[in-house]
Amino acid sequence: MNYLGFDPGRDKCGVAVMTGDRQILYHETISAQEVPQRLPALCKQYKVGQVVMGNQTTAKQWQKQLQSYLPPAMALALVNEKNSTVEARQRYWQMYPPQGLGRLVPLGLRTPPRPVDDIVAILLIERYLDLDSGRC
């Protein structure tokens, strides 16, 4: 089964699609206005069977909206997103190692050059899969 991770926000949202064996198929940060069109299209394109969403910030508002434009049978799971942004900043540097002199800057002092909401969406799927498999 494929999973769609959704990190809800007021202005921008992180979106990721991952397989059950944790292969990342897609990830992007999109504007909140794009969500009603993009999420159903991604669910169809990647044959998503489960949507995993963070449970903080604007989660309750987004949960109602998602149910209005996702297929009625689509399962929606809420996952604790505590500290996910900090973890996503660290994961960014694993996915995109710094080059040149940037390698000399300690990890704690590095700032990713772009929003990491999409990486948060990846982490949400991983947390869900860890909960589902009993790892957490």
Structural class assignment: alpha/beta
Residue share in β-strands: 25-35%
The DSSP helix count reads 4
For the largest sheet, list the strands in their spatial order. Answer: 3-2-1-4-5
Mean pLDDT: 91
Query: Which range best describes the helical content: under 10%, 10-25%, 25-40%, 40-55%, 55-70% or over 70%?
Result: 25-40%
Element string (H = helix, E = strand): EEEHEHEHH
- Separation, N- and C-terminal Cα atoms: 21 Å
The largest sheet, given as strand count, sense and whether it forms a barrel, is: 5 strands, mixed
Using only C-alpha atoms, the radius of gyration works out to: 15 Å
**What is the overall silhouette?**
globular
The low-pLDDT segments are none
Per DSSP E runs of 2 or more residues, the count of β-strands stands at 5
Description:
The protein is built from four helices and five strands, in the order E-E-E-H-E-H-E-H-H. The chain is α/β, with parallel strands linked by helices. A five-stranded mixed sheet has the order 3-2-1-4-5. Helix 3 (84-95) crosses helix 4 (117-132). The chain is globular and about 50 Å long. The model has no long low-confidence stretch (mean pLDDT 91).
